[in-house]
Amino acid sequence: MEIKKIGFIGTGVMGFPMVKHLLDAGFKVNVYTRTKDRALPLIEQGAVWCETPKDCATDCDVVISIVGYPQDVREVWLARSTGAIYGMKQGAIGMDMTTSSPDLATELYKCAKSKGVSLCDCPVTGGDIGARNATLTMLFGGDKETFDALEPVFKVLGKRWEYFGDAGKGQLAKACNQVAVATTMFSACEAIVFARGMGLDPKQIIDTLSAGAAGSFSLQSYGPRILNRDFDPGFKIDHFLKDMEIALKVCHDRGISLPGLDLAYKSYSMLKQMGKGDLGTQALYLFYSSALIPDLLAHDFNDDASDPDLA
Amino acid sequence: MEIKKIGFIGTGVMGFPMVKHLLDAGFKVNVYTRTKDRALPLIEQGAVWCETPKDCATDCDVVISIVGYPQDVREVWLARSTGAIYGMKQGAIGMDMTTSSPDLATELYKCAKSKGVSLCDCPVTGGDIGARNATLTMLFGGDKETFDALEPVFKVLGKRWEYFGDAGKGQLAKACNQVAVATTMFSACEAIVFARGMGLDPKQIIDTLSAGAAGSFSLQSYGPRILNRDFDPGFKIDHFLKDMEIALKVCHDRGISLPGLDLAYKSYSMLKQMGKGDLGTQALYLFYSSALIPDLLAHDFNDDASDPDLA
Q1: Are B198 and A255 inside 8 Å of each other by CB?
Q2: pLDDT tens digits, residue range A138-156?
Q3: pTM for this prediction
Q4: Do B183 and A183 touch (CB under 8 A)?
């Protein structure tokens, strides 16, 4: 099958630049997204607007979704009369790139199979920067021949694509990534809290320790942002909580206990309760500084003048 | 002051290769260590054996210690009639490179000052490999002029030396490193436990995720060892517990709470109780697998045939 026409559902912070890359690469692209305004620059560039996911999928060789939450995934693919799965032609491939539930991915796969189309789960790592620079890593679960057939699309969207196994395994690999990320942010935050509390220069600490056994992406990339009190997302706490809930659910179902993940989930949940769900994951730091300086949360945390000395 | 003669106390897994480098660089070296046999190859290479730390320090320009625990540090420097501090000539520099207590470092500094000598704390990161390859990073606390004077020694032992502030700050910087390390090992172990539990290939997971936001030294360097069931130290759990106790003590004294560090300390303490204190820190993995497979600890964990499939 040659891939000529792609239906794309969800043109948010991730999907928008991905559609741009697909158009640049010469694919015909149908688009659907909740708020049409956000897709307008893509329509100007040649994408065709569709009123429903079903219309978006019609006549396409490949249909891609990257939306918010598992319930959104369910709706765009399966909703009666508007679901993408009902618009797909025989032999077409659907690919959900949302970070979503492994169980839902398996359910979608089976439902698609029964209708003569193929569906796979392929969440990504690399964030909005990876989407813009086409450097995403794609974590695939589904049929191997589907994986192979999608190579022309993978090439345009990222620089690495990995086959992890049958349907749901891509979501499980992404959940595994979130499990690994969950505790490294503690490492970065606690090193900075400790350094400040002990009168060490936290910048010197990050520079010196990043090169060694304490090194991590979190310390190296988020450490400096924390020092600048830059808590903008990056990756929102609300979304991270969703991802951790997915991981915790599959752990619970299989009797696996991960105390580091539990700690991360509890701490981020408290931040959300404190009204910080819209901040980036590096705002875990506020969990510590607010404990140390109770008044901090009453202040504007973006106000440089209030930068606390925790000593 | 030109540094010609160095007294070196403690020729264990770290000190031994450090003395070799100093001899190779042309320094005269006195050595003292608890078990003389371990120093014999150094004596053959030209080091001079001394019966006490005090003798070891006599006539030296610089006296270095790198021993096991804070109580050992106290003993080699301060013990009545045998302590190194009582052998040092006026103007000499003492440097404790053990990972030890910041408070003890301050105490030693003051005691030395009162005797007309200078003492500093300079623990290292980089482990036994860093000691052998002379690639250590040295974390200095003490007088700035002492730091500057020691450059000819630093150059021989490692590739980076950082001035963190007055006496005790080197130990605090090292404690900060251990705080940062504590939680990253959870990230590596939980990612592997999750991958295995979900039927993913943990090697593929490590390879794929190490390049992104989940990346850390622990995942990249210890992940593969865990997969090979290689729990040899590297860095012993017993020593890591000592280091975490130092960090927890200074946190407690200053009213700082670090839940990630707490979790690490509790988990490693349980491993020690299970008789695993001699294993490397990556044996944190056994904490998870033993919870999942209660019989595991009854087996020889080095027996490849017993490699558990946690699915």
Answers
A1: no
A2: 999 999 999 999 999 999 9
A3: 0.90
A4: yes
